[in-house]
Amino acid sequence: MNTTTIRPFFYITAVMLLLVAPMSTRALEQRCNDNASTSTPNERFIKHNDSLVFDKATRLEWQVCVTGLLGAGCELGVVRYFSWWDAQAEVTVFNNSNGGNADWRLPDIKELYSIIETACEEPSLNKLVFPNHPLSPAISKSWSSTPSSSNISQAWQIEFQNGLLYPLANDEQLTVRLVRSCDDICQQAYD
Question: What is the CB neighbour count within 10 angstroms for residue 80?
């Protein structure tokens, strides 16, 4: 291409980006059905600190951010992705290095589904409780510990973009959010 054809090409490309970018941003804003009952109301959760939240309904303590993100709004760090086997190994690494409780685990599919906000999508999470979950369809999914009963090379996951759950190949790269059962000592911190 010479400069007379490059300049119009860049001009057209710039105009297209300016027109498409606002639509892309709007497409990823959370949408909620205001007429539907919320499945994860704010009062169901108690934040312990920026990194932990207690679910009064299930008596589970959750990491607020997916693995790799930190901060009150999960705005710091870089999201980490894992195969299902690496996600299992990450639990051991976390329990050996966090200097606190060593009973964190990958949630089973029922536990993971318990934090789905059924009235919303993009994400299908309560954003005040679980902020900044990665949204792009390729990266909005999180592993559960539940293997597929029909295919040993698959495990269950939830796509937090829309709340769908289905098995995926174990070598897919997904996010991880750890959970633990809140024992008596843990519950005293919240009661």
Answer: 15
